[in-house]
Amino acid sequence: PLGLAWIAAVLEQEGYDVSIIDSPTLQLSEQDFIYMLRKEKPDVVGITSITPTIYKAYRAAEIIKEIYPEIPIVVGGPHVTFMYDEALSKKYIDFVVLGEGEYTMLELVKTLERHGVNYEILKSVKGIAFKMPSGETVITPPRPPIHDLNKLPKPARHLLPMDKYTFLNKPVRILHVMASRGCPYGCVYCSTSYFWGRRVRFRDPELVVDEIEEGVYKYKVSHIAFTDDEFTIIKPWVLKFVEEVKRRKLDISFSCGSRVDHVDDEILKSLKSVGCSALYFGVESANQESLDRIGKRITVSQVIKAFEKSKNAGIEAVGSFILGFPWETIDDMKRTIKFSMKLKPSYAQFTVLTPYPGTPIFKIALKDKLIEDWNWENYTTLRAVMRGYHFTRKQLQKMLTYAYRKFYARLGFLWEQIKKKRLLIILGVIKNNILPWLLSPLKRH
After folding, report:
1. Rounded to whole angstroms, how far apart are CA atoms 276 and 256?
2. Would residue 190 be called left, alpha or beta, if left means φ above 0 and alpha means ψ between -120 and 50 degrees?
3. What is the mean pLDDT of residues 56-61?
4. What is the CA angle 240-148-173, rounded to 5?
5. Which of 10, 79, 218, 239 has the greatest CB tally within 10 Å of its CB?
6. Is the whole-model pTM more than 0.90?
7. What ranges in 164-315 are assigned the alpha helix state H?
């Protein structure tokens, strides 16, 4: 949870005593959570959540309020940033942080410390929403994005269970690192551009490598997972990063996200030279019309070239494909699945189009009454929650199952995994993370 770790670091820098409870990683029960809560005796509690976990966040807030009714409870994250009315309709939530949270949370905590819950004074805190005693919702002026991310301290990883971030419970420790925030593309299905902003802000390569170095020597991590949406968007930055890793002689492996129009032979060779093991490409569709309509700004021919170049450089190319753009037909989706096999990626991720709050596709789905499932827990991208103009929700769910079966059940693919001694890993990922969703029945809410 890098968001919490960064907020904690900023608060600690100002002298506040902070703890982080990473409930999902620690697999806490409600009783475990209550025990830790009573042990900490907090003055303020902040909770972060994405859309499919928002009910758990609401339940956590409810538990806290039952035990400590006077404690201000703050929620943040992409879901409540766009659905603040929903969050504030819960009696146990006091404040919503809208967008980037570090300095908003700091100002909010300072204000609460000095003045208590004084609503008139709280109106001066930028980037929050709350309800007045009269029931009126107040949305304060937006906080500008952090212009210089280099001013942020390192995430407070010392507050996290760093030994628990592993892969399939194997002794492979993973360090999650974010080198940048923002995305200029504004694809209609993705909330990144609308949460972090359309301007890409990069941290200095030296600071990013500082984090990696700490991870290697302090936390004994063996793999770095970059959480940036587009790690390779600025070529000079990538080359500086590579040089810095080489200068420090760090022996690492890492994976990162890229775009098919942002890789060339030089970048791929450079990334490979410092341990890049996999590039994650958002292909989304084999249909050029869909690529144009979603604002992807790539071509099918660029996709083919990027996968070829990555394989030639010895880097695993992972393809992400979205099924269910509302204007598509079943045949369009089958073409995308067929295209995924033609590309021969090392792995393929198939998801169903999910209308996340804050995205243009959410507005389209609302306007055309396409959403049939309003249970946020199902907004995982593995559960169809909306229909299209030419297909039903049930048909879309079947297409997702069909896609995984067609791609992963091929003899050629299975033999390749056997040769690379990773068949059991692939089967484990599918069994634990994908199969439960594919087999569980659709529910209407």
Report:
1. 8
2. beta
3. 97
4. 60
5. 79
6. yes
7. 192-195, 205-218, 235-247, 265-273, 288-293, 300-312
Cβ–Cβ under 8 Å, residues 156 and 17? no
Residue 443: predicted pLDDT: 47
Task: Summarize the confidence of residues 227-253 as an average pLDDT.
Answer: 97
Q: Are strands 223-226 and 253-258 parallel, antiparallel or unpaired?
A: parallel
Kind of pairing between the strands at 137-139 and 170-177: unpaired
Q: Are 228 and 176 in contact (CB under 8 A)?
A: no
Measured CA to CA in angstroms, residue 445 lies from 2, 386, 390, 441 at distances of: 32, 12, 22, 13
Q: Tell me the two tokens of residue 77.
A: 């994250």
Distances in Å between the alpha carbon of 161 and those of 50, 72, 172, 179, 239?
20, 26, 14, 21, 32
C-beta separation of 74 from 108 below 8 A: yes
Nearest-5° Cα angle at 357, 351 to 361: 60
Of all helices (H) and strands (E), which one includes residue 257?
Answer: strand 253-258
Single out the residue of 292, 443, 325, 294 nearest to residue 391, CA to CA.
Answer: 325
At residue 444, does pLDDT exceed 50?
A: no
Tokens of 105: 């949370």
Q: How many helices (H) and strands (E) does the chain have?
A: 20, 14
DSSP single-letter state for residue 159: G
Decide: 313 and 268 in contact? Cβ < 8 Å.
yes
C-alpha of 334 from chain center: 27
- Closest to 3 in 3D by CA, of 81, 110, 61: 81
DSSP, collapsed to helix, strand or coil, labels residue 251 as coil
- For the record, the structure tokens of 275 come out as 């341990």
Phi-psi region of 249 (alpha: psi -120 to 50; beta: other; left: phi over 0): left
For residues 184 and 201, give the distance between their C-alpha atoms in angstroms, rounded to a whole number: 10
